[in-house]
Amino acid sequence: MAKTGTAPGRAIRDAWERFHRLPAGDRLFSWALGRMVPYSGSIGAVVRDLAPGRARVELADRRKVRNHLSSIHAVALMNLAELSTGLALNTGLPDDARAILTRLTIEYVKKARGTLTSECAIEPPRTSERREVEVEAVIRDASGDVVAKAAARWLVGPAEAK
C-alpha cells in the first residue's frame, strides 16, 4: 500500500480513495491495511468510513476474537480502538508528519457481543511539530450501547527522510 518515501497518512488516504468506491472496496482496503500492519489486521476489522480526522471501524463477532466468556476479548477491543484512533489521526496529518502510539488506556463498560463499531473524530494537527496528541475512541455494539471507551496518546513529529 505505501510507496517508499510516501508519508503513512498520505498512503492510507490514497489507498482509501482507490478502494472504497469499488464493490466490497472497504473490505479490500481493510485487507490491504492488514497486510501493511499485520498485527492490526489480525482481528479482521473492516474500515467502513475514513476521512482526515475521522474513522469508523467495524469488528464482526466471531470465534477468532472471542474469550472464554463467549464475549469479544479485551485485547481485540484494545486493538480495534488503537486502529480507529490511528487511522483518524494519521489520515489527518500533514504529509511531512508521522505518529507513533505512546499510551493506550481503555475502560470496559459492558460485555462486548455482536458486531462492534469503533468511532473516532478529532481535529488533527496542522503541522509536523513534535507534540503529543490525545485521541479518543468509543466502541458500541449493534444496539448502540457503549461497550468500551479508549484514550490513545500519539506522539506526532516530522517524518524521517528515507
Please tell me about this protein's structure:
- By secondary structure, the chain is an alpha+beta fold.
- 29% of the residues lie in helices and 33% in strands.
- The chain is built from 4 helices and 6 strands; from the N terminus they run αααββαββββ.
- It has helices at residues 8-19, 25-36, 38-41, 74-92; strands at 46-51, 54-59, 97-108, 116-121, 131-140, 146-158.
- A hairpin with a 5-residue loop joins strand 5 and strand 6 (146-158).
Largest sheet: 6 strands, antiparallel
Give the neighbour order of strands across the main sheet. Answer: 1-2-4-5-6-3
Helix content: 25-40%
The fraction of residues assigned to DSSP E strands is: 25-35%
Runs in which pLDDT lies below 50 for 5 or more consecutive residues are none
In DSSP terms (H or I, runs of 4 or more residues), the helix count works out at 4
Structural class comes to alpha+beta
Radius of gyration: 15 Å
Question: What characteristic shape results from the CA principal axes?
Answer: globular
Distance between termini?
17 Å
What is the mean pLDDT? 93
Q: In total, how many beta strands?
A: 6
H/E element string? Answer: HHHEEHEEEE
